[in-house]
């Protein structure tokens, strides 16, 4: 497998650079989020992607040394043509089905890269805050890499996430509060005992792992990007990652300068990034008492807010909210019409698509990609007749 063309780490806020052979998380100058930068001229002459399947085909553009490339089958998920668009009269629609990842969510991509990088650079223990799926993905890759992991999750997180994370031998700590409170606990532990903190945007690997979703969509669509991509947003790692993916593909000469318009979807009861986008702000204020049934979108404050809002504006995108009731309703429609069993976050994308099509913001001929970011099997409590009779 090829070497990585990683050249340096660069702060997304102040532009300071940092060397790649030390395990650091955030900018040494200002504490901002670090982004991986590659020697793209060199990479251009190389074979990217490599043949085969999965996320490590893109190893040249990932910040992970070969000894950190643990294989659990992340990436290479299907891009499914769907008849729901036609059925709703809203044009050609594909679903990128991220439930096909290890631990059944796209969090596996980010954790494969973050944990692979950490292990190869000498980490000896890990810590992560999580609203649900990240804990399972981190725990699986911690198990694969042999590193001990502690996860902090809100105490009301569905049992499915706790059970699975514990199955992979993670230490699960339940916290009285939301993901932001869990983030503080994780940070404190990292400072106390040197565990490497895997929180989103507090280390550069998770954005890089999620970037492979953008690479795959481009490849799967014959290097002709769709007009619109709709993404269910918590902290917004995926928004930053998709935008970065397309810039790198252009530098490699694989696509041109055309870009999709990105749509960020949040729950109407926890929408700090949507509120900031609509208000024209560069940063997002924390959302008070946020709640939603979509655990992945229950994020009241994003550490990467500036990068997310910036990417969305550059794409000429939109930010919309949907209600929990709509997510539940559209999950049923999506399941019955497509054969996928989508998480509420995935259903939120369809609800947003319908809203934007009705407004006329999405034209009938425009090609749209929705993300189903995880499986409904971890959210069975949201479905009718879900309880066992006895
Ligand atoms: C984490 C998560 C999201 C949000 O992803 P971000 O890139 O962090 O905004 C969406 N859906 C599911 C199922 C998730 O677990
Ligand atoms: Zn900085």
Quick overview:
Its cofactor is pyridoxal 5'-phosphate. This protein has helices at residues 40-44, 84-87, 107-120, 133-145, 159-167, 179-193, 205-220, 237-251, 272-278, 305-314, 324-338, 344-359, and strands at residues 6-11, 17-18, 34-38, 79-82, 93-97, 126-129, 149-154, 171-175, 196-197, 228-232, 261-267, 318-322, 368-372.
Main sheet: strands, sense, barrel: 6 strands, mixed
- Helix percent band: 25-40%
What is the CATH domain class of the domain at 79-104 and 205-382?
Alpha Beta
Q: Name the bound molecules.
A: pyridoxal-5'-phosphate, zinc ion
In angstroms, what separates the terminal alpha carbons?
53 Å
How are the strands of the largest sheet arranged? 4-5-13-10-11-12
> What would the average pLDDT be, to the nearest integer?
96
Protein name: Threonine synthase
EC number: 4.2.3.1
Cofactor: pyridoxal 5'-phosphate
InterPro entries: Ser/Thr_Dehydratase, Ser/Thr_deHydtase_PyrdxlP-BS, TrpB-like_PALP, TrpB-like_PALP_sf
Secondary structure elements and pairings:
Blueprint: E1 6-11, E2 17-18, E3 34-38, H1 40-44, E4 79-82, H2 84-87, E5 93-97, H3 107-120, E6 126-129, H4 133-145, E7 149-154, H5 159-167, E8 171-175, H6 179-193, E9 196-197, H7 205-220, E10 228-232, H8 237-251, E11 261-267, H9 272-278, H10 305-314, E12 318-322, H11 324-338, H12 344-359, E13 368-372
Parallel strand pairs: 5-13, 6-7, 6-9, 7-8, 10-11, 10-13, 11-12
Antiparallel strand pairs: 1-2, 1-3, 4-5
Helix pairs in contact: 3-4, 3-7, 4-5, 7-8, 8-10, 11-12
The structure holds pyridoxal-5'-phosphate and zinc ion.
Keywords: Lyase, Pyridoxal phosphate
InterPro entries: Ser/Thr_Dehydratase (IPR050147), Ser/Thr_deHydtase_PyrdxlP-BS (IPR000634), TrpB-like_PALP (IPR001926), TrpB-like_PALP_sf (IPR036052)
Enzyme class: lyase
């Amino acid at each position: 497998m090829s070497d990585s063309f990683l050249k340096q780490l660069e702060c997304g806020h102040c532009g300071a650079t940092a060397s790649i052979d030390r395990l650091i998380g955030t900018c040494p100058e200002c504490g901002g989020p670090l982004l991986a930068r590659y020697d793209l001229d060199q990479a251009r002459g190389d074979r990217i992607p490599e043949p085969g399947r999965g996320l490590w085909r893109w190893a040249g553009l990932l910040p992970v040394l070969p000894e950190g490339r643990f294989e659990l089958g992340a990436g290479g998920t299907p891009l499914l043509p769907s008849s729901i668009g036609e059925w709703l009269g809203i044009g050609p629609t594909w679903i990128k089905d991220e439930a096909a990842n290890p631990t059944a969510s796209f969090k596996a991509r980010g954790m494969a890269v973050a944990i692979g990088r950490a292990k190869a650079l000498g980490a000896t223990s890990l810590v992560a805050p999580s609203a649900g799926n990240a804990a399972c993905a981190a725990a699986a890759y911690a198990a694969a890499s042999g590193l001990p992991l502690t996860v902090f999750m809100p105490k009301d997180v569905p049992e499915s996430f706790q059970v699975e994370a514990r199955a992979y031998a993670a230490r699960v700590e339940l916290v009285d509060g939301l993901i932001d409170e869990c983030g503080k606990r994780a940070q404190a532990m990292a400072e106390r005992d040197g565990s490497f903190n895997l929180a989103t945007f507090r280390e550069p690997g998770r954005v890089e792992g999620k970037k492979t979703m953008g690479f795959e969509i481009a490849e799967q669509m014959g290097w002709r990007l769709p007009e619109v991509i709709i993404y269910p947003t918590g902290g917004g790692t995926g928004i930053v990652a998709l935008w970065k993916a397309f810039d790198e593909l252009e530098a490699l000469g694989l696509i041109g300068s055309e870009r999709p318009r990105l749509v960020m979807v949040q729950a109407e009861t926890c929408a700090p990034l949507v509120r900031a986008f609509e208000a024209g702000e560069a940063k997002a204020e924390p959302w008070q008492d946020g709640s939603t049934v979509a655990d992945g979108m229950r994020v009241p404050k994003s550490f990467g807010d500036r990068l997310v809002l910036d990417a969305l504006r550059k794409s000429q995108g939109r930010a919309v909210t949907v209600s929990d009731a709509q997510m539940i309703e559209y999950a049923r429609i999506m399941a019955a019409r497509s054969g996928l069993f989508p998480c509420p976050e995935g259903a939120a994308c369809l609800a947003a698509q319908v809203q934007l099509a009705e407004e006329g913001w999405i034209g009938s001929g425009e090609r749209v990609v929705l993300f189903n970011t995880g499986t409904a099997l971890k959210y069975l409590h949201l479905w009718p007749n879900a309880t066992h009779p006895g």
